[in-house]
RNA sequence: GCGCCCGUAGCUCAGUUGGAUAGAGCGUCUGCCUUCUAAGCAGAGGGUUGGGGGUUCGAAUCCCUCCGGGCGCGCCA
């Protein structure tokens, strides 16, 4: 609601300024520091003052006067008047009653449905190597990605969610190596093991052992080389074991993500990127379009290289100095590098490659949604049209920034400038431990590590908090709290409530930090259900539930009267203006905030920053708690005010539920 | 060496394209449950926005410089 009025106000200012002063300025708006100064402010006159060489206040007065005439005849919908403030701000005051009515009508229906033929956004996230259990660093990736998907869908975008599975890389090979050389297990024995234990946890430990095994004696790396070669050939017992491991662990990852409500449309696997020869097609394109060239001298002789940035202009100098300024795409032995494969894959994502995968159904999410997988086998019928994205968002940690840039440059070099501009890297920083937390978990840390602000999680070394362990721990914690409060709950209620709280706490914890913040994980922070946490927000919803429930239960005699009053309120027969102008504006404050979800979602999408929405949910819950303590709804004597307060509570609840849904969190009925 | 990110209250972090008096949470201290759930609320205390310059009517935000921390730059994936 706020978003709409803000936009209208901005447009009115822009039009007026262009018509009157014949200048084009970017009109920005913001919230004034205090409500009595209005709800929208624009500092545009400071900029105009410079250009017109006139005092800002004078211009502001002219604009405000003009806007008032406009507003008076309904020129700016939702705005009652404008005024000059401070040194030259133009402030707008909203029609509070109209805002309230519109916000109530819109609440819960703000999301726009996407057209089936609208441009598609592809979001890739999660992408965990399928050789060990997921840890909370992986969870941060998935939570950011999943929330971003929800934001895009809320705003009416068509979205396809992909999870890239590197099932042929060293990480899987290392676990295969572990089973064969350290444990001397056959495929049959590995299968049996997987059937009777948590396979992803088992591999977690084995992977760490393999890492150590290889570090102890570098000559053992030849074993890895052998395993990788056999995996790449795609048949034989080693390849079969690799496939079994990666597939089993992928299922474990999906089960973990299902606990958090994270869905995928497509699981695209490296094995098919290789098997379908995407690279061959891309290689031809790169050569045809002159994006890469064969180096004939210097260190990179024999490699196919892609000049980068400045190197493109000064390549001869670089060659003379023997400096490697270009990115190697194909090695001198003819094998393709990681970026090469990634360029090929991104050509497919944008629908620029004349090849496609075969698809098969792989997994059914709890909500019934089917995740498809790429396959070398015959295609199953009924697959949606995958790929051909208009925009591509990759949620990958910030260390991958350089390779992502190279892929973008590759697209540009191929002449796909528009696609290159539409390839967005949603970078986030890692999750580490506080040194204290690492020590608690029993990891040996050096003295140097102890002084660091955080210690990195490492699947390779087997150091990390496993996602399922943390979720279990949080649920246990939540269950204890539920038990202490609600002895009357059934077993099913206890579980459902504790589960919702655990997910709320975990997802909020992962999303409240902005992407550039390094999360130093500590159980104390993560397990907290007080203050700026998911449960705090859920609790506000529960409070509204309580009011609505009690209102109906305890006062049946109220009921008929309130129903009649509520009907009058919806019909606009009750003048709510006095309620929204109470001496200190406190009710208006919460109504205004409740009507601002759309504006926050837009900002979150523009900045690709899910934390904005988490922050909003917390602020709204906080605002409600203040309102809740100040206005006792059910004991309010004035029937008109009572139904009004009740409607405000309902409005806040609707918006809290909507904001939580964007974060992938639900609120229980009671907690 | 080159490039990117970060430095804000005791701790952990916000601060939307430069805007009005820099905000939360945690922790500390003081109050509030016989009225809708205290997973809550009210209040107190806590700041040279790493230092120094500059641009601007206006800087936590932009530029320069220094200090401190992190990451990336491979014929690894």
What does this 3D model show about the protein?
The chain has 671 residues and is of the alpha/beta class. Among the domains are: 2-94, Arginyl tRNA synthetase N-terminal domain (Gyrase A, domain 2), CATH 3.30.1360; 435-526, no CATH class; 534-662, Isoleucyl-tRNA Synthetase, Domain 1. It is 54% helix and 12% strand. A seven-stranded mixed β-sheet has the order 10-11-6-5-4-12-13, with helices on both faces. It has a three-stranded antiparallel β-sheet with strand order 1-3-2. Strand 2 and strand 3 form a beta hairpin. Helix 25 packs antiparallel against helix 27 (611-630). The two termini are 31 Å apart. The protein binds one RNA strand of 77 nucleotides through helix 2, helix 15, helix 22, helix 26 and helix 27.
**Count of distinct strands:** 16
Assign the CATH topology of the domain at 534-662: Isoleucyl-tRNA Synthetase, Domain 1
The portion of residues forming beta strands comes to 5-15%
Give unreliable regions as ranges. Answer: 310-324
Number of helices: 28
CATH architecture of the domain at 534-662: Orthogonal Bundle
CATH class of the domain at 534-662: Mainly Alpha
Subunit arrangement of the protein: single chain
Looking at the structure, what is the overall shape? globular
The termini sit apart by 31 Å
CATH homologous group name of the domain at 534-662: Isoleucyl-tRNA Synthetase, Domain 1
Sheet of most strands: 7 strands, mixed
Helical content (DSSP H or I, runs of 4+) = 40-55%
Radius of gyration: 29 Å
Strands ordered across the widest β-sheet: 10-11-6-5-4-12-13
Q: Helix- and strand-based class?
A: alpha/beta
Mean model confidence by pLDDT: 91
